[in-house]
Write a structure and sequence with these properties.
799 residues; alpha/beta; Rossmann fold; five-stranded parallel beta sheet; 25 helices; Xul5P/Fru6P_PKetolase; Xul5P/Fru6P_PKetolase_N; aldehyde-lyase activity; lyase; Phosphoketolase
Length: 799
């Protein structure tokens, strides 16, 4: 679909002149951010002392992005559009910042960067400067929901923002370097999940400026027909705006963008009037303009504009090279700042009129500060979905199956601001009950066979796609614009979104700590299931609980980790997380049947405390124990209990304290994490000098990392995953990683001084049990029945 708008000239001569001058103002500010610390309006000849000592920033995509923003502003004013903008090019913040400053909103939030010469000086100085702001769209940038420093997620963030926002248009500029990433390539398929009745629209704008840091970009170097076919194949209707002559490009973009908006509105009007949400071909724009457009054409005999040399700082040494200084001055004066800004340094009145006003300004759109629009979830009582527990550890239930029934009602009550995300694993993760409230979103083709258990619907609210990147991007865009959700994924594959989690956590930390104007947004809730200890057929490749290590590296202000041991605890934790704001909550809960330990009242109390002594599993009778058996996670909890039962039978007078941890950060000191225990409380649970045998879901080093400052740390002996596994039965996998009941009991015998010697025969029996159970697993392919259906008897097993 070649560009059919190129011959149209929708802009009058006066409108063209004003838009071009406004664009020049944006470009002038972008260049000023990179170079100037003084003389912001060039009201005197440029001198070396006016130049920043360190030149940092990226010029290459700025003019192209400003070009897009100017044209979006025209249509916002003309058609009263509700628009947010996402800058995909990695370090293209100068364009966004310049537009925000010219709209006046930047100065409203940051009064010291006022709309005058002094404010402009401060505006320039802060950019890529210690104590200032970065060169990508950081949280400090009003109107932004996208951290531009990480490539590949602009489009998925855009679609996440558009879901359930029927009047919103999200303009997403995709950098052509960014377009080479796997996540971005996959996110083009998001158009198969956009419902034109209930959702807003995304207008992707692929910005082909030809180069990355030092190489051509792939999509800029394939034939036009091939590029067009690519996007038609993705299901879009591509329009091309190409060239370098500003006057012609303004006319082309004005015609093309307005046509795309009209097309979007026609699609939505038809769907909403007929009630038919069949997948349309949504429009998109391919903008091909020179890299470093309007900048220096040549530096030191080398081409710059239209070259990779324009990517970052086009002229590197103006503070020390007189020729370079004159080149920078000539470049910036070409924009004629004296005609753009009045005597005070403010944008002249006739150009200020081009910007939208109030919340129609892109930088002030409330969707980009989602907490302003956030509605609390209408939550059912999670207690009503609990499991009856009359005797601890006597009944097996799938925790996620129970959670699914609760989430079903959460979904049913919140059909416009809650979604569940997952990579084709909702049913596998035993969350099938959610489908009773809403099916899977699907606007691509369906066939008759899909009706047999497919749960596909254009009205679905369960978002499934086999791309964790795209799902997380959708989810982040959704919550940053004020809505709620939960993302369930296999533990082995949550690592796919490690870097996305990192960026979102950093965004939250910055917003929460320093930016009071950003209102709290709903939390990202990650349910990690299909866990390391239950990979009977997937084997070693699916055994990786290390995401928890990644999470603990982030600020304690924004991350939480919960390991509920049973279904009632999972319900309590999930309810808490869904109600929370400004966190990334990580919940670890398996989908397979597990023993249930606590009734609902006890579960709520236990989860509220985050850590607790289970009196029913302890034998210390409120006295000083001989040993503390601690655990975190479902399988580690069961194996620790089974070890206690063995020890009780072997050594009836042994005083054991049983401790379960739900909130992992309770292990940290209260001086380092808001959920941390004081040293006194920690010692009251774990003692100050007794051996602690800690059975842990993940890598043992993580417990040591969190508790290394504790008084009794030297006595903490942690069992966890040791990167050993294959196609194993559950007990076999536990044994080879030494988190099993027999290994734990042996460790207690070795660590409790009074058991040394008297426990030798018990140790021999325990070693024999390990050998026998391994042999049985390899002979029969399954664990023995007394292991598979083990329940807590309380009396124990003797040698």
């Amino acid at each position: 679909m070649a560009d059919t708008r190129g011959s149209e000239s929708p802009l009058s001569a006066d409108a063209l002149r004003k838009m071009d001058r406004y664009w020049h103002a944006c470009n002038y500010l972008a260049a000023g951010m990179i170079y100037l610390r003084e003389n912001p309006l060039l009201r005197e000849p440029l001198k070396p002392g006016h130049i920043k000592n360190r030149l940092l920033g990226h010029w290459g995509s700025d003019a192209g992005q400003s070009f897009v923003l100017v044209h979006l502003n025209r249509l916002i004013k003309k058609l009263n559009l509700d628009v947010i903008y996402i800058a995909g090019p990695g370090h293209g913040a100068p364009a966004t910042l310049a537009s925000c400053y010219l709209e006046g909103h930047y100065s409203e939030i940051y009064p010291d960067r006022s709309e005058d010469e002094a404010g402009m000086r401060q505006f320039f100085r802060q950019f890529s400067f210690p104590g200032g702001i970065g060169s990508h769209c950081t949280p400090e940038t009003p109107g932004s929901i996208h951290e531009g420093g990480e490539l590949g997620y602009s489009l998925s963030h855009g679609y996440g923002a558009a879901f359930d926002n029927p009047d919103l248009i999200v303009a997403v500029v995709v950098g052509d370097g960014e377009a080479e990433t796997g996540p971005l390539a996959t996110s083009w398929h998001s158009n198969k999940f956009l419902n034109p009745i209930r959702d807003g629209a995304v207008l992707p704008i692929l910005h082909l400026n030809g180069y990355k840091i030092a190489n051509p970009t792939i999509l800029a170097r394939i034939p036009h027909e091939e590029l067009e076919a690519l996007f038609i194949g993705y299901g879009h209707r591509p329009y091309f705006v190409e060239g370098d002559d500003p006057a012609q490009m303004h006319q082309k973009m004005a015609a093309t963008m307005e046509h795309c908006i009209e097309e979007i509105r026609a699609i939505q009007q038809h769907a909403r009037s007929t009630g038919s949400a069949r997948r349309p071909r949504w429009p998109m724009i391919v903008l091909r303009s020179p890299k470093g457009w309007t900048g220096p054409r040549e530096v030191d005999g080398h081409k710059v504009e239209g070259s990779w040399r324009a990517h970052q700082v086009p002229v590197l040494d103006p503070a020390t090279n007189e020729t370079s200084l004159k080149l920078v001055e000539s470049w910036m004066r070409r924009y004629r700042p004296e005609e753009l800004f009045d005597e005070s340094g403010r944008l002249v009145a006739e150009l200020r009129e081009l910007a939208p006003t109030g919340t129609r300004r892109i930088s002030a759109n409330p969707h980009a500060n989602g907490g302003l629009l956030c509605r609390a979830l209408d939550m059912p009582s999670f207690r009503e979905y609990g499991v009856d527990v009359t005797t601890p550890a006597s009944r097996y239930v799938s925790p996620t199956d129970v959670l699914g029934k609760f989430l079903c009602e959460v979904m049913r009550r919140n059909m416009s601001n809650f979604r569940v995300f997952g990579p084709d694993e909702t049913s596998s993760n035993k969350l099938t009950a959610i489908y009773e409230a809403s099916q899977k979103t699907w606007l691509a083709e369906t066939i008759a066979d899909d009706a047999d258990g497919g749960e596909l619907s254009v009205d679905g609210r369960v978002m499934e796609m086999l791309s964790e990147h795209t799902l997380e991007g959708w989810f982040e865009g959704y919550v940053l614009t004020g809505r709620h959700g939960l993302f369930a994924t296999y533990e082995a594959f949550v690592h796919v979104i490690d870097s996305m989690f990192n960026q979102h956590a950093k965004w939250l930390e910055k917003a929460k700590r320093e930016l009071r104007w950003r209102q709290p947004v709903p939390s990202i809730n990650l349910l990690i299931t299909s866990l390391v200890w239950r990979q009977d057929h997937n084997g070693f490749t699916h055994q990786d609980p290390g995401f928890l290590d990644v999470v603990t590296n982030k600020s304690p202000d924004v991350v939480r980790i919960y390991l509920p041991p049973d279904a009632n605890c999972l319900l309590s934790v999930a309810d808490h997380c869904l109600r929370s704001r400004d966190y990334v909550n990580v919940i670890v809960a398996d989908k397979q049947p597990h023993l249930q330990y606590l009734d609902m009242d006890a579960a709520v109390t236990h989860c509220t405390k985050g850590i607790g002594i289970w009196e029913w599993a302890s034998t210390d009778q409120h006295a000083d124990p001989d040993v503390v058996m601690a655990c975190a996670g479902d399988i580690p909890t069961m194996e620790s209990l089974a070890a206690v039962e063995i020890l009780k039978a072997q050594f009836p007078d042994l005083k054991i304290r049983f401790v379960n941890v739900v909130d992992l950060f309770r292990l940290m000191p209260d001086t380092e994490h808001p959920h941390g225990l004081s040293d006194r409380d920690f010692d009251s649970i774990f003692t100050a000098d007794k051996p602690v045998i800690f059975n842990f879901h993940s890598y043992s080093s993580l417990v040591h990392k969190l508790s290394y400052k504790r008084n009794n740390h030297d006595n903490m002996h942690v069992h966890g995953y040791r990167e050993k596994g294959n196609i194993n039965t559950p007990l076999e996998l536990a044994i080879i990683n030494e988190v099993d009941r027999f290994s734990l009991a042996i460790d207690v015998i070795d660590r409790v001084p009074r058991l040394r010697g008297v426990g030798d025969h018990a140790k021999e029996w325990l070693r024999g049990q390990i050998i026998e159970h391994l042999a049985y697993a390899h002979a029969e392919g399954i664990d023995r029945e007394e292991i598979r259906n083990w329940t807590w008897a309380g009396e124990g097993t003797r040698a």
